Amino acid sequence: MGRLALILSGAAFALTGCMEQGQNVVDITATPAPEYLGVETRLIEGDLVNFLVEMKGVRVKQDLTSYVDCAAAQYAVIRGYGFARHVRTTVVESGGIWRADAVYTISSALPDGIKTIDAEVVLAACVDNGIPTV
């Protein structure tokens, strides 16, 4: 056995030992695809918008937050704005249904803040990933 093969074999053995006996590895590709149950949009005031979304089959929390981002991006584009900024999101799960209550501001110029989205870029990613929008 060559030196590289021996090193790789030893590394694989060491990594195997890191898992506790009986620990399960979750393969998210084996779980059913998320089911998008709908978006409700409410204009709060001016450029402040509330999005209520529901999903089933959430694999990771990012599934739900991506759905909200897609809704916000579509809303911004429909209204002729190029950007949105995430303000807050509340997430709850009950009986296998996940709900997010999120608030975004929409604007024509890139807003200040770290959680901003370019609506057209995010919208294209939503289409590529099969995530529905408003």
Overview of the structural elements:
- A hairpin with a 2-residue loop joins strand 1 (35-45) and strand 2 (48-56).
- Helix content is 33%, strand content 34%.
- It starts with a helix and ends in a 6-residue tail after the last helix.
- The chain has 3 helices and 5 strands; from the N terminus they run αββαβββα.
- The protein has 134 residues and is an alpha+beta fold.
- It is globular, with a radius of gyration of 20 Å.
Beta-strand percentage range: 25-35%
Q: Which structural class should the secondary elements be placed in?
A: alpha+beta
The low-confidence parts are 1-20
Radius of gyration, in Å, reads: 20 Å
Q: What's the number of extended β-strand segments?
A: 5
* Biggest sheet statistics: 5 strands, antiparallel
Number of helices: 3
Provide mean pLDDT, rounded.
83
From the N-terminal CA to the C-terminal CA, the straight-line distance is 58 Å
